[in-house]
UniProtKB/TrEMBL annotation:
Domain NAD-dependent epimerase/dehydratase: 5-188
Protein name stated in the entry: dTDP-glucose 4,6-dehydratase
Gene Ontology MF term list: aldehyde dehydrogenase (NAD+) activity
Source lineage: Bacteria, Pseudomonadati, Pseudomonadota, Alphaproteobacteria, Hyphomicrobiales
Native source species: Chelatococcus reniformis
Classification via InterPro entries: Epimerase_deHydtase (IPR001509), NAD(P)-bd_dom_sf (IPR036291), NAD(P)-dependent_oxidoreduct (IPR051783)
GO CC annotation, single: cytoplasm
Amino acid sequence: MAARIFLAGASGVIGRSLARQLRDAGHLVVGATRTTQGREALQALGIEAVMVDVFDAPTLTRAVSDVAPEVVIHQLTSLAGGIDPASATETIARNARIRRVGTANLVAAARVAGARRLIAQSIAWAYAPKPPPYRESDPLDTEAGGLRALSVREGVIPLEDAVLGQRDMDGIVLRYGQLYGPGAWTETPKGSSPVHVDAAAHAALLAIHRGAAGPYNIADPGGEVSIDKAEAELGWRPDVRLAPGERRESLSS
């Protein structure tokens, strides 16, 4: 069943793959981006695009309301250039602000627009230390220190609280493992719970119509997080990949 979708972060690493998958599934997609380049890339895919800054709450609310989406998908980050050790604090703080302030603005805009479901990107390595595997019912690391505190306590936890703590729509949080594949920092699996970009995007596609409100771990099997819930409730598979032709079309834009 086709749904009307507002996709924030549509020109990002996951957003590019997700926009293509949403379009091919027959959904009516409006992609939001901060740049002219991002808008042109989305338009080249045949996807309607709007330019909006997630920190500009009134403009964001108008943009989402104009779309009148059934579902809002949040794939916003500020990590496209990677993390330079020389400026790691600044980069992580900037990304945490998007997760904290940007998410709050997007939740408020989705509420005004009357969306029925909000799907948001989180991370799968924010759990409090314990022997793995980590399950969605395990607590996040509220006692983190240093740069991890900046990322988890100032970014991830406020994001998840904003999405899961409201009652106006179904809130879905996708806790992605370390991304690999086209556009990511690495082409091959790395980290404690890696996940391919296309499979990560596919989880958001499935969550439009499947799964109860709550968090879901999204990662390759054999890592530190359990993916049983995503497989059972979303019908998600970690082996989803775009075909080479589809990939060329997505990236050429």
